[in-house]
Amino acid sequence: MLPKTQRIPRKLFGLLLESKKYLNSEHFSLRITSSEKARIAVSVSKKISKKAVVRNKIRRRAYSVLKEFIPLLPPNLFLLIAKSGADRMKSQDLKKELSLLFKKV
Q1: For position 54, which CATH number holds?
Q2: How many domains does the chain fold into?
Q3: Three-state SS across 10-55?
Q4: Which of 4, 7, 26, 49 is the most buried (most CB within 10 A)?
Q5: What Å distances lie between residue 51 and 34, 41, 55, 57, CA to CA?
Q6: Gene3D superfamilies annotated for this entry (predicted)?
Q7: Residues contacting 82, CB < 8 A, separation 6+
Q8: For the segment 90-105, what is each residue's pLDDT rounded down to a tens digit?
Q9: Which pLDDT tens digit goes with each residue over 51-84?
């Protein structure tokens, strides 16, 4: 899990969802809004899985990969939204897809 200073509170999710800047990959969507500091949040909808165990597993795996990217990111707010199929990804594929997505930023 990321430190609280690097995560985004839920009250800012609405601002990020309305953002015009976004990037898409096969299993994730990334919403971006400007900020003074790089902060990240991962969102996994109940549409992906009804089971909280599965949603939390996706979230934990994404956060573990994102720890590497935080020092390299520009000062923005990033909301990573999981799409269907993200629960069946292997860890190598997850790391590759997220690295490609954040390199576009």
Answers
A1: 3.30.230.10
A2: 1
A3: HHHHHHHHCCCEEEECCCEEEEEEECCCCEEEEECCCCCCCCHHHH
A4: 49
A5: 33, 20, 7, 10
A6: 3.30.230.10
A7: 27, 28, 42, 43, 44, 45, 48, 58, 59, 62
A8: 999 999 999 999 888 8
A9: 999 999 999 999 999 988 888 889 999 999 999 9
Per the listing, tokens 């790089």 go with 38
Token digits of residue 51: 């089971």
d(CA 63, CA 37): 17
Residues of the domain holding 15: 4-103
Measured CA to CA, the distance from residue 22 to residue 104 in angstroms comes to 10
Scanning the structure block, which residue is given the tokens 């995560």? Answer: 7
